[in-house]
Amino acid sequence: MENFTVYNPTKLHFGVGVISNIHQSLKKYGKKALIIYGKGSVKKYGYLDALKKQLNLSKTEYVEYGGIKPNPVIDDVRKAVEVAKNEKIDFIIAIGGGSVIDSAKMINLSYANNIDAWDIMTYREIPKKRVPLITVLTIAATGSEMNGAAVLQNPKTMQKIGYASELNYPDESFLDPSLTLTVPKDQTINGIVDLIAHSLEAFFAYGDAPLSDRFIAQVIIEAMDFAEPLLNNLKNITLRERMMWTATVALNGTLYAGKASSGDWGVHALGHTISMLYDTPHGQTLSIMYPAWLKHFKSKIPERIAKLGKLITANKNTNEDQTIEIIENFFKKIGAPTRLQDINLTENHKKQILELLIKNKVSGMNFSLDEKDYEKILNFAMQ
Amino acid sequence: MENFTVYNPTKLHFGVGVISNIHQSLKKYGKKALIIYGKGSVKKYGYLDALKKQLNLSKTEYVEYGGIKPNPVIDDVRKAVEVAKNEKIDFIIAIGGGSVIDSAKMINLSYANNIDAWDIMTYREIPKKRVPLITVLTIAATGSEMNGAAVLQNPKTMQKIGYASELNYPDESFLDPSLTLTVPKDQTINGIVDLIAHSLEAFFAYGDAPLSDRFIAQVIIEAMDFAEPLLNNLKNITLRERMMWTATVALNGTLYAGKASSGDWGVHALGHTISMLYDTPHGQTLSIMYPAWLKHFKSKIPERIAKLGKLITANKNTNEDQTIEIIENFFKKIGAPTRLQDINLTENHKKQILELLIKNKVSGMNFSLDEKDYEKILNFAMQ
To answer: What is the CATH number of the domain that holds B165?
Structure first.
């Protein structure tokens, strides 16, 4: 096992109805909140109103910034920081999915330290402070509600990058599975792919950590168990509960004990490049690129890939080919794309992707990637 | 799933050598520490000296209270509180196993709130404050290093009881597996039994939580995987690492998501009664009482018990009898007692145990126990 530190200070409240308890927590965080939300579903389904009711109950003043995009951009973060400064807010409440929470984290650090958010994300400036951050999750997928990570894109520099800091852990997160009953099928599929990809990034982190590997396999098995029933019955609260918690566990640190603190994230980086170019939903980029990455690395780390399959199948004879088949077939079965063609990308797009990968020197933390790797992986993604 | 809250503020540092980093953390906790330790092994093996070196490096003053017993008693807690008061200490460092850390937790609450520790444990007084608590673990078993629980016995009232509070989470815990290389075989066996029993208490908590159940089974499988190799090679650091982390996970909240926040703890309560009477090591009471409890509850909750076996074996056909056999045979295989006779207790002792169980109205949180249950369970424990 690698030496590691476990630290996750987020207090997470889970269960149907927890949204009604938010007002009890708010007083200690200050007088004035900035509410961050997305493109409208929290308005459409009444979740934003329900949150405002909680703020009224605790007599918390608030201002709001809506319109965060599904692939969130730095410009929205900067605009929201201006609102925060003008209104001298005390704390931030994010209501939405990962893109909203990620944006709120960087709004927080930029506002609290008076530094541009992109300078923080590119490590040109080091933030030292934060204001309290509360999250209300409405889409299960990214795990941002209980970790220190954020991903944003900058259309000017053509980068989509991640940033992690202990300052980014939400103080409290409210996970009310009933708020996810309205998540449409395609976004539910993307969420399932995302949580499996997070588990895989942890599996391919540096370090030998038997219990974490076992847990990783169980997260994948659990997802494989609830996915089809849920996709056939999107209003089933029990299945929504299972998905919501599993997505949190996939990226709240539970799967990293004994491994290098970062996962591999090479596949995420490859996927981010596609999202950057074509605004492709994050989950779709992962269900295409993970099988391709596995096929490319199969000859280099056959035993590692086979170990995953052995744990998933509880069968010592499962090999690397079967492991990749299990992952890819599952993505296909739930209707996730597994080839670039499935999202209407052609050879020309592939060239564009390759160029941007080369320009941004995209790589993984544990398994490095170079130009030759990009090409081979993209070939697998189009085969 | 049941509604639940996840909150574990302990910062845990794991790995060979982390003991040398303690001095970096100490400054922020104050000028003067109270060191709590046990009956001598931390002195014998130089761990206490290594800790004092860290205190010297950070120029932290300290006083000490040693002699905490393996089944820790309230008297030692009271005496240590006097030392804390006289010396006006700022924070507490516990170095040892679960009994030392549990004692330190109650010393902390008693000292910080100026309330007798037993009044806290019996809920006659509610503590509101704490001083910082640092732990240095030298025996893997109880999980106390990353939870809010403490167990103490009071020989005057003939009770051995547990107490849990958010105030009890250590601020920082240092888990250096190299400090566990000197744990003797019998204590290592007891630790393995204890961590499996903790997983089982979580499994039998109220509530249907599929991912937590999967994780519980994996903790048991992992223990079954490292136990024999470790017991045959007590100086193997890789196996010690696996045991140390697995014991922490078994009781740091990871296994409780979606369940009632308390496990069942009926078997622990039965075991505590035996420890109270005969000073029997905690682990030995569990390897005897868990199979007996399972046999008694087999007819009442066959499916629940069978589910555990199905998850452990990854075989849908495993039934409740086979499940109990798996647990009991494992305890036997690693040399843990599974009958009262194995620790030289006779029919007369059984009567004494029964009397004390009745007097203290011992029960579980999820599965209640009465006089008839005690008798039947004790019969299984002697069969």
So the answer is: 3.40.50.1970
